Amino acid sequence: MDAQLASKMRFISAQFIPLLEGDLWLRSATHANAMATRLAGALSELPGVTVTQEVQANAVFAILPRHLIEAVRAQHRFYDWNRDTGEVRLMCSFDTQPEHVDALVASVRRELEAAA
Questions:
Q1: CB of 66 within 8 A of CB of 73?
Q2: Is the residue at 17 inside a domain?
Q3: Domain range holding 74?
Q4: What kind and span of H or E run contains 59?
């Protein structure tokens, strides 16, 4: 079995330098959290969608009508949090853009309108 030698740790550790210098980690996290807040706000305005948790970081937990989950999932990646209730977990990251959030919300809205 091979093990990482301490003398080689500089290769692993080097990636943390740009992350910590200039507060890149903070800017990235702040952006991801802002996108999650945007997403939760837009989803909460849609009929039949319930945001179940206060947004405290970059995750949004929402109950979507079960009949539209797979149709939306075909267009956007997200995870089932509780299949019994239809609750999903939506994650935002440093590279989530407002248009990504808007596209997901538009997909949910479109599926809701198609089902009505």
A1: no
A2: no
A3: 29-115
A4: strand 59-63
Q: Which two tokens stand for residue 18?
A: 């740009």
| CA 30/CA 95 separation, integer angstroms | 11
**Contact between residue 60 and residue 39 where contact means Cβ atoms under 8 Å apart:** yes
* pLDDT, tens only, 14-32: 888 888 888 999 999 999 9
Residue 78, token pair as written in the block: 């997200």
pLDDT over 60 (residue 114): yes
**Which whole-number Å values give the CA distances from 19 to 11, 13, 48, in the listed order?**
14, 11, 40
The answer to whether 96 and 78 are in contact (CB under 8 A) is no
Domain count, the chain: 1
Q: Using the structure block, give the residue that is written with the tokens 């093990």.
A: 3
10 occurs within a structural domain: no
Q: What is the CATH number of the domain that holds 44?
A: 3.90.1150.10
pLDDT at 80: 96
Examine residue 84 and state whether it is found in any structural domain, yes or no. yes
- Average pLDDT of the residues in 31-57: 98
Place of tokens 């080097």: 14
